[in-house]
Amino acid sequence: MEYSLREAEPGVFEIMQTRPVAVGSFNDLELAQRIVAFLQNDTAPGTPRNEIIKTAPQPKTVPEAPLPTVYFDWTDEALAKAFPRLAAGEKVRDVADSFNLSWTVLRGKWAAHKKRQTPSVQTSSALVVPGKQAVTALEKVTAAVSQLSEQEQCCVCGTYFKPTPENLDHCARCTHGA
């Protein structure tokens, strides 16, 4: 912060406070110096603005990277090689990177492939947990009905709850006053 003194009118003096404000940040020193010269030209006579603008550096060109080979084109042969690897548990990105193709397209193709598989193949590989027997729909419904028969209806809100010796008529929510 800087202080300066200036004469506003004859016989009237003002104390001015100058606070620094960041106007911009640059990675190129030469460009930053040209911008400062351009901005300082507003207050100080000197080089005309047209000269400053004409001598500004040209933007640097970045060499273009080579384009990847047909990134989204998954052939049937490539998919036939990729699907067994995915079924074995390999990650989708790793498989796609080995083919230099898009992993998002492979993810969609893999999901569609799994959906088209027969239910017997899906059941044998994904839905049956080792060591547990498959539960039929009738057994599931019977278990749900028996759990409901052990429950009572709350006399305040009507939801079903399992009664405890402390609360025989009210569910936990109504007992605690929530």
Structure report:
It is a single chain. With 178 residues, the protein is mainly alpha-helical. Helix content is 44%, strand content 11%. Helix 3 (76-87) runs antiparallel to helix 4 and helix 4 (92-99) crosses helix 5 (103-116).
In short:
It is built from eight helices and four strands, in the order ββαααααααββα. The protein is mainly alpha-helical and 178 residues long.
Question: Any key phrases for this structure?
Answer:
single chain, mainly alpha, two-stranded antiparallel ribbon, 8 helices, 44% helix, flat
Mean pLDDT: 76
Can you count the beta strands?
4
Main beta sheet strand tally, sense and closure: 2 strands, antiparallel
Globally, the shape reads: flat
- What portion of the residues fall into strands of 2 or more residues? 5-15%
Over the alpha carbons, how many angstroms does the gyration radius reach?
38 Å
Output the strand order for the largest sheet.
1-2
Number of helices: 8
Q: What series of H and E elements makes up the topology?
A: EEHHHHHHHEEH
Q: What would you call the structural class?
A: mainly alpha
Please bin the fraction of helical residues: 40-55%
Q: Uncertain regions: pLDDT < 50 for 5+ in a row? A: 124-129
Number of domains: 3
Distance between the ends: 58 Å
